[in-house]
Amino acid sequence: MNDRLSCSTALGESLPAPHLLEIVTRHTGATICVVDNDLSILYANEAYANWFNARPKELLGRTLTSLYSDAARAQFRPHIDRALAGHEVTYQRQICNSEGQEVWFSISLHPWLDGEGQVGGLVNSALEVHELKVTTEALRAANQKLFSHMENSPLAVVELDAQLGLVHCSSRATEWFGWHHASHQGESLLNLVGDGARVSALRKGLHSLLSGAERQNRVEASFVRPDGSVQHCMWFNSALINLRGETVSIMCQIEDITERVAAADRLLHLAQHDSLTGLLNRGAFMVRAHEAVGSLDGQGGAAEGVVILFMDLDGFKEVNDLYGHHMGDTVLRLVAQRLAHVVRAGDTLARLGGDEFTILMRGNPSPHDLKLFIERLMQAFATPFALPDTDGVRVTLGVSIGVAAHPPLPAQVDELLTRADHAMYEAKRGGKGSVHYAVPSPV
Predict the structure, then answer these.
(1) Backbone angles phi, psi at 38, to 5 degrees
(2) What's the rounded Cα separation, in Å, for the pair 263 and 274?
(3) What is the largest CA-CA distance in the chain?
């Protein structure tokens, strides 16, 4: 062995090679043995001998095949053959210690060359990596479990890096948005979601996480699907912060709230619209009227002003008496349709209840323009209304209209509506199909 393994260091010049080898290998923390081509042990350190409850010199001349079981030899023999062929080999396997416990080791096989440059054997070193292996396996199992949860979650999951580049997205995210981490790896999420008001809150929320202003937030964003439909999503975003307080990763969990938004829209529509005609109801009309009055700047410009027209149908009671309330409801729907074709863009048409309708006009139309508009309203009732399923029965209706405008009346919604209501009754007293304008009260 002294011929095969020589030491050429300065320390080796003052110490015999075996003593130097013992010093070097005793304190490595690894089990080490050197074998020849026949797998006979030429050298073993104390840690290696301890595995066999022996002293190192007692192992000299023994072969590896005599020290290990058939099962162990079946595991390591292919690796040894490869090392004896001149390759450096590293692998891991479990080894049973003296207490009967299976312990993980990382084993390295390094071929050594004889004086003629041929492989004379190999150096076998094994380092215990049990804790590392167990930790790694636990981490792998945890990651696999987390991945499984991400894939099976009803939420779409997206992981971003510190530049908002796409790192990973779950299959559900791919299904919803068409993104895939394999083909969109590193691409900025902001480029993927595009611009516009639908995603402005998402952009703001992600930048807030990047800046450190927030650690987590929740934002709503909408996306247009390839079929043109709109998908509403709630994004639950959280930032991973390093020890320096920097955001290094962002996790987004995304819920599809399209049905919830649609249901809320339906409820809002029902709350704001008349169930019979589909027009705005009194409550929604009052909101629009207050908004219009509130937008006036009080400077008295040509476009400053609002006009409320209060309308009551003439002859509607006779329709109910002759044909019943069901047919009366049908007539109200027909009236709503005709009025909707007359109102201007920006006007607000509403049914206040019964056979009473109202129109809110923004701006300050000239007397001539207002007169023309009212004439078109009257003309909408010139053609009789055909009653369905009555063998051609037609009914003729008229409309009485009260008008209240600011200016000259005060810019107060309740007073304008009340004055328009009173003006409508004045129109009825003047004869069906009439119009009456409210004027300021005398001082």
Answers:
(1) -90, 5
(2) 18
(3) 133
Q: Where are the alpha helices (DSSP H) in 251-362?
A: 258-272, 282-294, 316-342
**Angle, alpha carbons 435-436-441 (nearest 5°):** 170
Q: Please give the Cα distance from 293 to 363 (Å, whole number).
A: 10
**Cis peptide bond N-terminal to 407, omega within 30:** yes
d(CA 314, CA 355): 9
Let me know: does 420 contact 391? Beta carbons within 8 Å: no
- Cβ-defined contacts of 382-385 (< 8 Å, 24+): 385/331, 385/334, 385/335
CA distance 132 to 400: 90
Q: Name every residue whose Cβ is closer than 8 Å to that of residue 17 and which is 6 or more positions away in sequence.
A: 2, 5, 6, 7
With cut-offs at 50, 70 and 90, classify the pLDDT of residue 420. very high
Provide DSSP, 155-170: SEEEEEETT-BEEEE-
The structure's pTM equals 0.58
Query: Would you state the structure tokens that stand for residue 332, as one six-digit string?
Result: 């109200």
422: Cα separation from own chain's centroid: 54
List the structure tokens of 391.
């063998």
Name residue, tokens 């304190």. Answer: 27
Q: Is the pLDDT of residue 53 over 50?
A: yes
Q: Give the confidence band of 58 by pLDDT, cuts at 50, 70, 90.
A: very high
**Six-digit token string for 25:** 């290998």
- Written as six digits, the tokens of 229 are 């439909």
What is residue 91's three-state secondary structure? Answer: strand
For 312, the token pair is 């009551």
**Of 88-92, 257-261, 297-301, 305-309, which gets the smallest average pLDDT?**
297-301
